[in-house]
Write a structure and sequence with these properties.
26 strands; alpha+beta; five-stranded mixed sheet; single chain; 561 residues; seven-stranded mixed sheet; binds glycyl-adenosine-5'-phosphate
Length: 561
């Protein structure tokens, strides 16, 4: 795969294959919304199921080798408005935005870059241009191209092509903070408008619960699944009798009215998250933060993402969200960008959320460490000389000791847990898996002639179809035998049956769908009960007994295989 993938061509391939369609395409689509086709829906389900299996049902042991306690939740998308007041989303879940005063288009100020050409050292601005870009390097490229053209026109050669991106490329927010006052032109080349200063824009979608569209009935579609977990923390604790440390996981839709949805499904307005809130004692929180950061990066590699394209990046202090003590973004080098982009954030949220919900709801969300308290009592109370014949003096002494300990020590066993949050995007990872799997290569056909093929090299656990079953020809009972095998496997795996066209064409179709195995029933099957099994990546064909096919498929689907 070339490092830079032509995203328009790639999106067309995804559409043609039935991975991803533009939402409501027959009406011209709707920006920031996507649908998953027959292959895409299987791929995304496999991703969510792999996450649930590996993180919720069977997570690896914790830092000290202890078993991890993890349970799941499925919360409503619309919740009491106060949830979002407590979490800070109602007041602060916003991006800095700028509007074009002429064409009325709206842009994110941190994704809009301004290039300035200074006329003299006193920094008087001679030319200003703005572009939309994902990062500074891309912005510099676009701005360099603009200034080169402009100065060629003016027959001058002194534009700052050699200046580093940091010297003359600024985001709009930086531009304003430097005190530059020149008006910024709209980045749309055919528009001659100018931009406003940045203003906050709330990203939550609004609706109204009930028949009356009033302020009282205003509700928001959740912009993250996390808050449903915090709001249910006490319910889970009370109903499951879990003890710290433990995690609560949720997979579900989230909605953000992103100003600039872009890069295919990368930034959408409706997407799915796979989130864990891991509750632990404050003294152990750093240990758990490191555990989840390392585990989550490793998880992507075990599902076939090349480790050199996965970059964990510790956020700088200035980037951290208001609640976060530390955050590591696990970034992936998507083929549409020169810089890695966020796949998942692993955040140390401290006690921010539980404390905020306790304050706003008036409910006590602290945790009492009963086991720790009982251990302390055991170790501090004077033991009875003879447990069966306790003396009144001994009982009195112990009561006094207990009272004193309750006053001095017991409060230390009540605390608000700290939270580590690995928050992943199911759609972002699906896009990463699609990009990673997409391979164009030359292979030899049956006659040894080289020909190009597109093959989706999915990890078998994620592959939408696990195996395709073909009869070599539709006669001599081969088709009935192949159908029998197909029906037997279909009860356990997503398999397909294909009897149409030349066998080479059938292989190519399955390569494009990313099917790991093609199983062919031929003349020998009818004689000795063996079939051929073809490996998608190596193209090698092996003859194995029909009865072994199931075990082959099961083996490749085992986690860690
Ligand atoms: N609860 C924390 C939280 O929501 P976030 O970094 O805003 O943190 C977590 O989102 C993950 O959700 C991101 O790493 C990304 O994978 C996914 N995500 C966020 N916004 C998205 C969008 N507009 N489109 C697709 N995925 C998105």
């Amino acid at each position: 795969m070339p490092t830079k993938l032509d995203m328009a061509r790639f999106a067309k391939f995804c559409k043609d294959m039935g991975f991803i369609f533009q939402s409501s395409e027959i009406y011209g689509g709707i920006n920031g919304f996507w649908d998953y086709g027959p292959l895409g829906v299987e791929l995304k389900r496999n991703i969510k199921e792999a996450w649930w299996q590996d993180m919720v049902r069977n997570p690896p042991p914790g830092p000290d080798g202890q078993e991890i306690r993890m349970v799941g939740l499925d919360c409503s998308i619309i919740m009491n408005r106060n949830v979002w007041v407590a979490s800070g989303h109602a007041a602060g879940f916003s991006d800095p935005m700028v509007d074009c005063k002429l064409c009325r288009r709206r842009f994110r100020a941190d994704k809009l870059y301004v290039g300035t050409r200074l006329a003299n050292p006193s920094a008087q601005i001679e030319a200003v241009h703005s572009v939309e870009a994902d990062d500074r390097a891309q912005a510099k490229e676009l701005l360099d191209a603009f200034f080169t053209k402009l100065y060629k026109k003016r027959e001058r050669s002194d534009h700052p092509l050699s200046a580093s991106a940091n010297q003359y490329v600024h985001t709009i927010t930086e531009y304003h903070s430097h005190g530059f006052t020149a008006l910024i032109p709209c980045p749309i080349s055919e528009c001659k408008g100018e931009l406003t200063e940045p203003r906050a824009f709330n990203l939550m979608f609004e609706s109204h619960a009930g028949p009356i569209k009033s302020e009282d009935n205003l509700v928001w579609l959740r912009p993250e699944t996390a808050q449903g977990i915090f709001a249910n923390y006490k319910n889970v604790l009370d109903s499951s009798r879990l003890k710290l440390p433990f995690g609560i996981a949720q997979v579900g839709k989230a909605f953000r009215n992103e100003i600039n949805p872009r890069n295919f499904t990368f930034r959408s307005r409706e997407f799915e998250q796979m989130e864990i809130e891991f509750f632990c004692h404050p003294d152990e929180s750093m240990k758990w933060y490191e555990y989840w950061r390392d585990l989550r990066k490793k998880w992507y590699s075990t599902l076939g993402v090349k480790s050199e394209k996965l970059v964990p990046r510790e956020q700088g202090k200035e980037e951290l969200a208001h609640y976060s003590i530390g955050t590591t973004d696990i970034e992936y080098l998507f083929p549409f960008s020169d810089e890695p982009q966020e796949l998942e954030g692993v955040a140390h949220r401290g006690d921010f959320d539980l404390s905020a919900h306790a304050k706003h709801s008036g409910k006590d969300l602290s945790y009492f460490d009963e086991e720790g308290w009982n251990n302390l009592l055991q170790s501090r109370l004077t033991p009875f000389k003879d447990d069966k014949n306790r003396t009144p003096d001994e009982i009195k002494l112990r009561e006094e000791q207990k009272k004193q300990l309750e006053k001095d020590e017991k409060p230390k066993f009540s605390f608000v847990p700290h939270v580590i949050e690995p928050s992943a995007g199911a759609d972002r990872f699906t896009l990463a898996v699609l990009c990673e799997a997409y391979t164009e290569e030359m292979v030899k056909d049956a006659k040894g002639k080289e020909e190009p093929r597109i093959v989706m090299k999915f990890h078998p656990r994620l592959a939408p179809i696990k195996a395709a079953i073909f009869p070599l020809v539709n006669k001599d009972g081969m088709d009935e035998e192949a159908q029998r095998l197909y029906r037997e496997l279909k009860a356990s795996f997503n398999v397909v049956y294909d009897q149409s066209g030349a066998i080479g064409r059938r292989y190519r179709r399955q390569d494009e769908a990313g099917t790991p195995f093609c199983i062919t029933v031929d003349g020998d099957t009818m004689k000795d009960g063996t079939v051929t099994i073809r490996d998608r990546d190596t193209l090698k064909q092996e003859r194995i007994p029909k009865a072994e096919v199931r075990a082959r498929i099961e083996a490749m689907l085992r986690p860690g295989a």
